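#random but structural
TW: two for the price of one
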Amino acid sequence: MWKSISGRITLIVILTVVSVIVLAPSLTDKVPAGWKDKMPRINLGLDLQGGVFLRLAVEIDKAIENTILRYADDARGVCREKGLPVLAFQKAGTDGFSLRFPPGDFAGRAVALLKDEFPSLDAALGEVKSDGATVTLRMKPQEVQAIRTNAVVQGVETIRNRIDQFGVREPQIIAEGEDRIVVQLPGVKDQQRAIELVGKTALLEFKLVDEGASVEDALKGNVPEDAQLLYQKSVDPQTGRATKTPMLVKKRALLTGDTIKTAKVNFDSQRGGAHVSLSFDSRGAKVFDRVTAENVKRRLAIVLDDTIYSAPVIQERISGGEAQITGSFTAEEASDLAIVLRAGSLPAPVKVIQNVSIGPSLGQDSIRKGIQAAIIGALVVVAFMGFYYRFAGLVADFALVFNILFLLASMAALSATLTLPGIAGIILAIGMAVDSNVLIFERIREEIRAKKSVRVSIDAGYDKAFMTVVDSHVTTLITAIILFQFGTGPIKGFAVSLSMGVAINLFTALVCTKVVFDYLNARKPMQALSI
């Protein structure tokens, strides 16, 4: 019996020492730097630490439009490769487009070709006239629905990738409803930079500059059908003054950012300033090689979200899949641009519909009141157990100390995020920590009333209450798991602390309290128990 008791005591001592080592960096800064840097810590949520809260609306119809325009570009490219000349392109509603072909069998051949190349589109031959015929292509209904469903999901993943590279600890990025995304960034102070990073569509396109058209005429509203008027932004490094230069570029993008493999910031030691270096994947490198070979001595505009960053002249064919985006970048601007290019473009534009900056003073007040509530709750529970169950109640209070220590240490070890609802979960776990002992002590009382010895009564009380205690904790744990699975950020914080508290409570209620009674009985059989 002594062996069993010493083994349990040793386990409790080891867990206590490890918990103190893990938890200390989260409670105080007065620890050695090496210890503090190596140990995981409890992270504070947005409501405790302060930061930025954003609610975004996803423009799903724009995702459908972007997809159909990409299909149209690909369809024209396929037709050109097969010798089928396309005279004109026109949108057909929100989910389709039409291509016009010259007289002959071009349109009929195009229908068969496009049906085979694009199984997600329905292709139909339109009216045949003397000057040619049209082919109308529409996305199939299931394809449209898939885009609607995936626009928010892909948006969440893209934003999460950007935020992860931005360096925010424990962000909350979740879908809300059919077309909303909620972003919580604890500890972020620069609200505007966060909005720009999250909301940037990051649609990178390489387009030829339309050298033959007049910019002056375009500014008056006479923009050619196959061109668009954009502006090149530049900043004077001496004065910091920003200027915008109008420029006409072809509508059709020769290459897009979805072929980018890496994007990183480099610094020019000669000219000063930062630029972003790109490398394309195998498909992008092949296209970039062809584009530069076919357009030597022409200007190629690098366009990001309809803003021209640079428009260099292609001096020679560029093989190897490398390119640069130069401009009047600060190191921070170049870093943010590289982040969004690496993470990829959003499938659809997002619009900020709610923007809240939470100050740290509010978080400190929440922490103070939360700690006060936890301390008051714990003291009331301790006082009640000591008053109602006397010595046995003090044993339960002894186990409660270990319960709180192990719970906080577990949260620190997992780098869990502590939120205000999470503090509420801890307070609830404190109540449940002694609830198990209430069940056990009532069983022990029944055995003592039946005139059984103290040792037999204690053993019988723990044995008979065991399944009841386990059942109550399992049902609570199931509820906590469901809350974590389907809840949003605050609900998840509550579920995490509650589920961890429930699991730890099983150990402290059944092991920590029992070992005290076993130790006392082993030293000298107890003749009476204050319960």
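TW: number two ↓
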Amino acid sequence: MSNATSGEAAQIDGFHLLIEALKLNGVENIYGVPGIPITDLGRMMQEEGMRVLSFRHEQNAGNAAAIAGFLTKKPGVCLTVSAPGFLNGLTALAHATTNCWPMILISGSSEREIVDLMQGDYEEMDQLAIAKPLCKAAYRVLHAEDIGIAVARAIRAAVSGRPGGVYLDIPGALLGQVIDEIEGAKSLVKIIDPAPAQLPAPEAASRALEVIKSAKKPLIVLGKGAAYAQADEVIKEFVEKSGIPYLPMSMAKGLLPDNHPQSAGAARSLVLKESDVVIMVGARLNWLLSHGKGRSWGEPHSTRFVQIDIEPREMDSNVEIAAPLVGDIESCLSALIDGMGENFSQPPSEWIDAVREKRDANVARMAPTLQNNASPMNYAGALGAIKRVIDKKPETMFVNEGANTLDFARSMVDMHRPRKRLDVGTWGVMGVGMGTAIAAAVETGLPVLAVEGDSAFGFSGMEVETICRYKLPICIVVFNNNGIYRGTDQNRSGGTDPAPTVFVEDSRYDMMMQAFGGEGIYATNPDELQRAVTEALESGKPTLINAVIDPKAGKESGNIGSLNPTSAVDGGMSAEALEILKKKAAQ
């Protein structure tokens, strides 16, 4: 931008320096909510060729930016207003950091001299101090000539080492500052190799191989870090060359197809309890894996772990790691593959046969349950319909959240391609669905199927207007059972208010989509649901399908004890839950 008059040097303002700094480093999409002091910034970004997607709530915009980081390995950018808008985006920033996804939250803020004296400015808040504990790094820019280096530092911090969220504080007055245009151009920084490969130490790779070779019942656990790495061919080569059964965590499903001969997803309880060596690839021994101990695993300290992670401090976080392998996933697995040589001994046939027999028996036992056509639907019937759609359309981006809707779908819906399943991640945050679906459509250009519990949908449901406004190819399926877990709870006081977990009976979520010009469909049985989803994905039109679920079909607590990916017929699901599914399927 030039403000020069005759005889004067051309100048550039903070607005355009920020835009040019982002564009120089490959940032193309901005997710946010306009308002003071960044409304004009959004307009100018759009004018300069960036895609600016305006949401109805900052948390949803932040969730979009977070999952954009996971899908692209570049930081997704969320733009918010000051104070309340910043706070709304902060949950998503912390969510990105917890999940190790690169994201940058850029927020307008009040001027330092007023904030520091607490003089009561509009939306006054020390945002930098609040953000610091909840993200990987936080920076504030006070001078226009520092914008370029600030953006470069934010991007490098977001993607290097273990990725995470970064906060960039932009006081309103900064955007209006002007400097010489030539000096401004010189101040911009194009980062070089922001996330360099980190090779493991040779002795660490040798140690890991010795532990693996000693195993009688080895297991590979693939985490969403393995999916983020985009080292798909190397991961496939390592799994297949080793011959070791693998268990994918939720967002790692599809790195190898769920029907791959080495998949142990449908034998989760067996492999966790009996494995003697576990190779963790981009997965952490947190609550999602019972911290590597407890009832899900075998005798205490009987399992030895090989752990691949780029963050050294992750090692020994819950149990002793026999062979820590610090580095990026592609480099670490390449070192292991090279060390295997041509004559690597695969696991004993007794172990392979035991895993296969358990898996095949469980899959066969569950198959009839997924074929039922009950009306109203139970979870098995409805998810059986979703499964059949994904099996036929494996490139579909599948977004999933809820309680029972999430837990059962993890195990019942097979994935066949990497990074096609997106869900609530490590924190189990409800409300990520619409932001995630929007970013999935924008970043990949593929059709998106978002399967939502009715409670989870309520957190971000107003974004159906955003979906319609941008004409995105998103089909939302709301599993409507009239409440949280179940729609049958009673007010125990005998009063007239509904129970805390009960919603309005027979809510017509499909009409919400119709109100904004999208397609709204009402489905009462799995056959109707499968047809409606298939047609919606093929049409590319914004669609919401209100899938009527039996209010009695849910399970209290959302089956929280089996949040790892597993077959619903495996021991990862309680016997009680399995019996409920069987009875509903038989009705």
